[in-house]
Amino acid sequence: MQVSTQSHFIQDQKLDHFFNQKTKFKYDYYIEKTMQYLSGFLDNSSFYSGASASQLNSKKKSLSFSNDETCSIEDALEQIKDLYLDHAISFQHPRYVAHLNCPVVLPALVGDLIASSVNTAVETWDQSTSATLIEQEVIRWICDKMNLPKSADGVFTSGGTQSNFMALLLARDHYAFTYFGLNLKENGWSDVVSKFRFFCSEKAHFSLKKNAALLGMGYKAIITVATDEKMKMKPEALVQAIEREKQLGNIAIGVAATAGTTDFGSFDPLQTIAKIAKEYNIWYHIDGAYGGGYILSETHKHLLDGTALADSITIDFHKTMFQPVCSSAFLVGDTQNFKYISHYADYLNPLEHRNEDCPNLIEKSIQTTRRFDALKLWFTLKMTGEKQLGSFLEKVHYLALDLYHSIKDDTCFEIVLKPELSTLVFRYKNYEHQHNSKLDRINLHIKNKLFATGQASIASTKLDGNIFLKFTLLNPTSTIEDLLEIIYLIKETANEYKIQNEKAYAH
Predict the structure, then answer these.
(1) How far is the C-alpha of 218 from the C-alpha of 224, rounded, in Å?
(2) How distant, in Å, are the alpha carbons of 8, 13, 14 from that of 5?
(3) Judgement on whether residues 204 and 324 belong to the same structural domain of the protein
(4) Sequence-ordered list of residues with C-beta below 8 angstroms from that of 88, at least 6 positions apart, any chain
(5) Is 348 a residue whose pLDDT tops 70?
(6) Structural domain contains residue 414
(7) Do 288 and 350 reside in the same domain of the chain?
(8) What is the pTM of this model?
(9) Domain of 478: which CATH number?
(10) End-to-end CA distance of the chain
(11) Is residue 90 included in any domain, yes or no?
């Protein structure tokens, strides 16, 4: 009895670590202290500390923790400042132009804080109640924006890769059931599936091939289609690819058009591809992870006219609607197609208890436990508004155009094409006689040196096997002066590289 009492006493000492009515003042204190450290993070002068991998690895001993040793909130925050906040990448910094990471709006952070604190899981009605209604309302809103029919539906996902996975899964199972009477969900693989082919542009996102492999179809199931000089899928090349696969005895089941390619922000001709998909009776998916948010803009919404004809759509709010990750959605033109992923578990969502008034969102998701990610977008739409969000996107587009016009006649640079969205792909090329291999080394050095010194973060990509630099602009608070400072740093770094190499060759 004495041991048991002592055990309960030890356990009770830590009960004030839980979020509940008794600890709300402690919660306030924790949030207040945390905000002080987050404010310090915002005051960092560079996007990155410039710490090397070896310097960060040297802190590994500090990363460890023991069940027998605990510390105060002050000590924990001080440690996390040294381990993380002092070295975290600042996506909101004007010299961060590398990847599709956007700064976040304040209303979204409010929603994220509430969602994390309350900790709602939105898989079933009895866990989420009104949270389910809020997610459905946000989904209905984006379906309407995409001009999808009333039969449309959707679900929040972890990101574009998961959404594209669901598109391939639904396209495969729908085709197998509709044209071969195969229920892959019930009975598993069939040999005919090995002949299924899905088409996308050669500039489409890598997740399509990755997901085809995860689905057991293999990379070979994804047929890439040639693009034109603006990096858009060629409709005639799509038709030729479909016919070629048919002649080989394979079966076309779907096509993915890209609304905003990762590297170039290019929009495939959505309406034309939709017509081709309809002619061949195949699934029509639109990967709008990057460009889908531009449905809110006046400058680009016409490029998304073909969305009304889509069987499914991917859209990432954490790319172009300024949301914290994760905030993405997978949309379908017909909610009935979610039957290919639904499952009914006796302990969770038994079929006999199915109630349209109390829906279980797990029936539309490949995840079980899922965060209430819709709340932060709800706050954003309520407080910021879709018109303002659209203007933010227009601003970063015009910023990309301003940068293009500022350097297009500069002999130091070779630009691939005029931006269609908010990316600019180019490379440093000061002398015409330089070989591609040398240019590759210079441009890779520029990228790595600027990151390592914490001066600027830019991305690189390849075009025809050669290395190019890439600016991805998603920060409406950035200015053309901010970007031209990075251009100056690129030139300066290239000149230093050339001088060092000339000295090396001289010796």
Answers:
(1) 14
(2) 5, 13, 15
(3) yes
(4) 41
(5) no
(6) yes
(7) yes
(8) 0.94
(9) 3.90.1150.170
(10) 83
(11) no
Find the CATH number of the domain harbouring 305: 3.40.640.10
CA 3 – CA 250 distance, rounded (Å): 71
Q: Are residues 399 and 375 in the same domain?
A: no
| pLDDT at 212 > cutoff 80 | yes
| Token pair for 225 | 């289609």
pLDDT at 1: 43
> Rounded to whole angstroms, how far apart are CA atoms 439 and 432?
10
361 plus 416 within the same structural domain: no
- Cα–Cα nearest to 417, from 396, 401, 432, 436: 401
Is the Cβ–Cβ distance between 23 and 16 less than 8 Å? yes
The three-class DSSP label of residue 328 is strand
**Residue 431 banded pLDDT, cuts 50, 70, 90:** low
Assess contact for 166 and 338: CB atoms under 8 A.
no
Dist CA 128 CA 121 (whole Å): 6
Structure tokens at 193: 């599936």
In a domain, 100, yes or no: no
3: pLDDT strictly greater than 90: no
Summarize pLDDT for 362-396 with one digit per residue, the tens.
999 999 999 999 999 999 999 999 999 999 999 99
Q: What would the pLDDT profile of 77-125 be if each residue is shown by its tens digit? A: 999 999 999 999 999 999 999 999 999 999 999 999 999 999 999 999 9
Task: Give Cβ neighbours of residue 447 (< 8 Å, ≥ 6 apart).
Answer: 458, 459, 460, 469
CA 14 to chain centre: 38
Rounded distance between C-alpha atoms, residue 85 and residue 329, angstroms: 29
Q: Say which DSSP state 417 is in.
A: S
Q: Cβ contacts of residue 152 below 8 Å, gap of 6+?
A: 143, 146, 331, 332, 333, 334, 335
* Tens-digit pLDDT profile for residues 463-498: 999 999 999 999 999 999 999 999 999 999 999 998
Strand duo 251-258 + 283-288: pairing: parallel
Tell me the mean pLDDT in the region 264-271.
Answer: 98
For residue 168, is it within any domain? yes
Pairing mode of beta strands 153-157, 328-332: antiparallel
Residue 417 makes CB contacts below 8 A (sequence gap 6+) with: 229, 230, 231, 264, 425
What pLDDT score does 112 carry? 98
Question: Two tokens at 1?
Answer: 């009895």
Residue 506 has pLDDT above 70, yes or no: no
Q: Are residues 255 and 328 in the same domain?
A: yes
Inter-residue contact 148 to 308 (CB < 8 Å) = yes
Look-up of token digits 């609607």: 321
Give the rounded percent of residues in the chain with a pLDDT score beyond 70. Answer: 94
Kindly give, in sequence order, each residue whose CB lies less than 8 Å from that of residue 448, ignoring residues fewer than 6 positions away: none
Contact indicator for 197, 245 with CB cutoff of 8 Å: yes
Report helix, strand or coil for 58.
coil
